[in-house]
Amino acid sequence: MGEPVDEAVRAVPAPPLRGLVGWYSGYRQRGIPHGRHRGLPSPWLTLIITLDEPLSMAAHPDPGAAPGEYPTLLGGLHLTPALIDVPGRQSGIQVAISPLGARVLLGLPAGELAGTDAHAEDVLGAGMREVHGKVREAPDWAARFAVVDDWLLDRMSRGDGAQTITPVAEAWQRLLWAGGRLRIDKLAADTGFSERHLRNRFRADIGLTPKAAARVIRFDLARRRLAALPGVPDLAGLAADCGYADQSHLDREFAALASCTPSAWLAQEFRNIQSGHHPPA
Q1: Please, which pLDDT band fits residue 39 given cuts at 50, 70 and 90?
Q2: I need a labelling partner for 67 at 20 to 30 A (CA). Which of 165, 167, 174, 254 fits?
């Protein structure tokens, strides 16, 4: 059976990609108990490039999508968790892509991927199969991340060029900087759009409405802070720090976006949190 393996490595992308890509997260585990991981809503599109075995999707954010095996996966922003079976082992690289980088790096707006998971090669073509093979052949994490860097830099050079700063992009950045705590009517007024127009533009360019995006940003901040808390978490304090009305409000958002309580999520994800990774987020 061999010794257990538990590797987790995080890296930043090449400088030209920063702002379009948040990070690379490499993970490899062997000899762990069979479990199920929740892929929670977050402000990042998710690209998974597996290494030794495909990703086993038990349930998608889209309840109509069938379970299946994914050698590579591309997922848009979503409001319900994905469920991933972990049969004692998992390995791959997760790439966190900003919705603002979707057009430049993926060739389509983030809205076209909203609420869905897809085989990445179905969206990105034969180049995805090629980079998957190169990642699997690379000898270590630094070399694997370099393969992904080179591939994304090439896609960026063949795309639309520099990222355009649009009113929607500015509004998205403001929501991120505020941790999701901005009034949507003020956000719309500051962009010069009506709330309805901003909502429609957000759906197309980001994949969520501004209100839903704010919820996801705040939730993502709360669950990452929860994972970082030592000992028994102070959920009431966490709720206040993240802008929730009270602990009950935090509990309701976890029920809606994670389909479990904060304490249940923390218990279920303990091994991944201790290892420093949450593949896929």
Answers
A1: very high
A2: 254
